[in-house]
Amino acid sequence: MALIETEEASKRLARAIASDISIFYDEKVTEGIRNDTLFDVLAEEIAEGENLYKSRVAPGIQNGNHFYKALVDVLIVPKGTVPSRMW
Q: Partner of 69 at 20 to 30 A CA spacing, among 1, 8, 29, 42?
C-alpha cells in the first residue's frame, strides 16, 4: 500500500483514527475529560492510533501534527459539555 503523500489525505486519516477512538472508547474519553486525564486514560489507544497513522503517512507530511490536532477536534471539542477542570 502506498504512503499518503498529501496533507489533506493525512488529515482525513487522522480524523478517521480519532473518530474510531471516540466511538469505541466513548466512556474512557468522557472519564478522561471529566478528570483531566484524557491522554493518560487513553495512552494505549492513542499510541496504537499514532502508530497506524505513522505507518500510512509519508514522513514529510507527519510533521504537521495532524494526528494530535484531530484528537483535539474529534475527542475533546465535542465533549465541551462534560464538567472538567480543563475548561
A: 1
